[in-house]
């Protein structure tokens, strides 16, 4: 508890310097050196020949809407540095070099939630997270030296601890002493959507500190699309994040870690390099959107769970979602392997529809798919189901994802039929507004520009597919890129997801076959402004929500991300 208090005080103390730092848009580099004798980690701002980790940080949020981060670790000559040492160093240097944005992002999104003295509800959450953490440590102790999965769960914990210590300026000493109500909160942010159902009172706390309470049915959390061009020349993959307005401090990351399958192994992991969209203090994507050196692209949209009978499957003897997704990203060489690793110890939290594209299996102009090109996986509490849908993709030339389960067994078990009966087609898979927009507009996608336009599309006041039984008779939720801030505050809606709330599509990421070869992707960080007025804090009725470090006007361009420097 003392550590939790110290972290909150430190976050507040650094706020003013963080604001100033956010205005500085220059590239910063830091090196980490491990002392062989004392086994302590020291950070330098000049090049060090014997470094274990180096980070390069470009804070260009005011110019592009994104910061950029590269983190590289090395095992050194003769594998001098272990995987454990590397991952702690990776977190340590990231926590230090991005500390300004971490502080601001905490204030904007977490501060005030479960603050001390802890309420009964927050004590219950803390107890659950600590029990889960201790259970994972027990499994690591038993299996970490011989099972790939648990070795890499351990590495993720070490990275999280390093992040915590690097941010707080603690002496760098290898450990996994994690404060579950500290920066660890950032690692389990997605899981909190379902833990909020397990501990219902938490949603009231969330609302009381000014955050949108979208822990409930109808919550939209991302749009995604796979588009196979008509001549089979290319495969586009894109994802829009839907999130709350205060979440818009963003970092594009490239991790390059010299890791191995096991502590004693010389065999490198398939996914040693990955590029992805992320947030300050978050070690996964969270959106999620990843390009991986194995040739895989993984992304998801949230499908949630609306069946309270399944909550019994959420227990502390499981592995939370961000852990499993990052381990799958690192260990898998195929979509099927990715699904296998992700399926281990299902937590039933942050229940998503995952799309795994294996660009190794894509052959331009080949009219028949290679098995394994596209795997779809869906998770709900108690069940994970996946299939190879490569043939389906080639048959219909696209696959759209919009927060509704595709597989009938998942759709039915998650409680969706009851919502269809109560509210109608909005909750169906094939008649959902976004499903119909994709069906109508995907044929217009013939190049990257038209793909971008579709992923940024929202013409809710004029498009008949955005209509609803509402007053006025449309909703900005019913679009590929939602802008719920533009729904009238005095409107009437059958359920809150269609109404006026601070929930918007914050970005768009897009890759194709050629970009995937260099782990590059296109990205834009702004609520959509193509057919709508750009979002501006000073003109929004949500301007009392915390947005420390945010630009006022969000009208940034599309950029190409391939790290803070070209990859050799």
TrEMBL record:
Keyword Nucleotide-binding tagged: no
Gene Ontology molecular function, alphabetical: phospholipase activity
The entry's keywords: Glycoprotein, Hydrolase, Lipid degradation, Lipid metabolism, Signal
GO biological process, alphabetically ordered: phospholipid catabolic process
Domain of life: Eukaryota
GO CC, alphabetical: extracellular region
Organism: Biomphalaria glabrata (Bloodfluke planorb)
Protein name in the entry: Phospholipase B-like
Signal peptide: 1-24
Enzyme kind, highest EC tier: hydrolase
EC number(s) from the headed UniProt entry: 3.1.1.-
Transmembrane segments: none
Gene, per the UniProt record: LOC106073930
Physiological role: Putative phospholipase.
Family in the record: Belongs to the phospholipase B-like family.
